[in-house]
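Colleagues,

For the teaching module next term, I've prepared a clean inverse folding example: a structure given as tokens, and then the sequence designed for it. I'd like students to try predicting residues themselves before seeing the answer, so please don't circulate the second half yet.
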């Protein structure tokens, strides 16, 4: 069974940094694209970043230059380094994978980890 477990969320001040981790199992991790979604109360879900099996990355305009997605295939893990955090980044962050051909928005998601940016 596919399992995705996020960790690393918490409370940080504006301008601070946080590193999220996602441990994956139940599929051939090295062959699949991974991504991070976030959802804030009352707002639509938003794709934050994706990374293909070949290492190609894509970012939402709102986080480009501040966030970095990476993967470690030996550890079956994907990470999201978040710098220069803003209150608008406050959301539950979800790790996902897409077992279909290419990235089609993701079809498996973890439980989420809360990120709160506040003074």
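(Answer key — instructors only)
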């Amino acid at each position: 069974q596919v399992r995705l477990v996020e960790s690393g969320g918490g409370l940080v001040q504006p301008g601070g940094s946080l590193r999220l981790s996602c441990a994956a199992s139940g599929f051939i991790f090295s062959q699949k694209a991974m991504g991070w979604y976030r959802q804030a109360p009352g707002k639509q879900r938003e794709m934050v970043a994706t990374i293909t099996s070949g290492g190609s990355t894509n970012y939402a305009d709102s986080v480009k230059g501040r966030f970095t997605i990476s993967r470690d295939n030996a550890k079956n893990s994907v990470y999201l380094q978040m710098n220069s955090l803003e209150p608008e980044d406050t959301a539950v962050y979800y790790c996902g994978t897409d077992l279909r051909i290419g990235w089609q928005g993701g079809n498996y998601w973890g439980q989420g980890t809360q990120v709160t940016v506040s003074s």
